[in-house]
Amino acid sequence: MGEVVLVGLGLHDEKGISLKGLEEVKSAENVFAELYTSLLPGFSVKRFEEISGKKVRVVSRRELEDENGQVIFKAVEKGKVVLLVPGDPFIATTHIALRLEAEKRGIKTRIIHGASIMSAAIGLTGLHNYKFGRSVTIPFPENFSKTPYEVIVQNRELGLHTLCFLDIDTEEKRYLSIREALEMLLKVEAIQKRGVVTNETLALGIARAGSPNPAVKADDVRAMLDFNFGSPPYILIFPGRLHFMEAKALVAFAKAPLKVMEIV
User: Fold this and answer.
1) Which ranges constitute the DSSP H helices of the chain?
2) Which DSSP letter does residue 63 get?
3) Which of 23, 35, 59, 246 is the most exposed place for a label (fewest CB within 10 A)?
4) CATH architecture, domain 117-263
């Protein structure tokens, strides 16, 4: 019986994997990759296979979740299995069930971490990492939910920043845009009237973190609705109470208007 090693791919392309992760791939009997939990805009399975010298089988959400990872557990009978995961393997909670099932079966698991959107987003903006509260996912309109708005409210009351993941469907090549996310939050605001997400609220959008050409912009919601962030993936942040260094960073790194210095 082998082991299952979950290896983070980082944020953008096949070069985002760590040297340690690449070593694990090269020494594995079987290599799988899931590419549905996040978009890696520059990733090529073919180029990765050339770099690693290993054949990679891309697995679907159905195989890993609906079928409880049976394809992984069958392969582990022949030796070490590597499962490649976008970003850092457990920043998204999707694969915790897979790891728990492996432990239940007596199969050893290990993690090789990769660059995470959470640390990348914080680094690109200059906001302080210890001032982030609970994060939340904003779903597609057909799955409309008030929860993202409520999380922003809770964090704002504590002076904390809110990081919002925007819904994706990689199989359908569908990615919730920053504009769509803001429009849904404005609809909730129109009902709740708590003054948390209005046209004047400061928001921060990021596109393609980890790529050579990320877009980072901070402004009021009204201006953000019309800003062209380009291609996905996207992240949305609602800053809480700003330290003066955070405000300076938003002006310098995210082209925020100078008026943010007045809300420190």
Assistant:
1) 19-26, 45-52, 61, 70-75, 96-104, 117-125, 147-157, 178-192, 221-224, 244-253
2) I
3) 23
4) 2-Layer Sandwich (3.30)
Alpha carbon 133 to its chain's center: 16
- In angstroms, the CA 204 to CA 20 distance is 33
Q: What pLDDT is recorded for position 215? A: 97
Q: Is the pTM of this model over 0.70?
A: yes
- In this prediction, residue 263 has a pLDDT band, given cuts at 50, 70 and 90, of confident
pLDDT at position 264, please? Answer: 79
- Start and end residues for every CATH 3.40.1010.10 domain found in the chain: 3-112
Please tell me the CATH superfamily of domain 3-112, with its number: Tetrapyrrole methylase, N-terminal domain (3.40.1010.10)
pLDDT at residue 9, as a whole number:
97
Residue 167's pLDDT band, with cuts at 50, 70 and 90, is very high
Distance CA 47, CA 127 (A): 35
Please give the Cα distance from 169 to 187 (Å, whole number).
23
Length of the chain: 264
User: Which amino acid, one-letter code, is at 123?
Assistant: G
Contacts with 127 (C-beta within 8 Å, 6 or more apart), sequence order: 161, 204, 237, 239, 246, 249, 250
Do 183 and 149 touch, CB atoms closer than 8 A?
A: no
Model confidence band, residue 231 (pLDDT cutoffs 50, 70, 90): very high
> Cα 38 vs. chain centroid, distance in angstroms?
6
Residue 1 has pLDDT above 80, yes or no: no
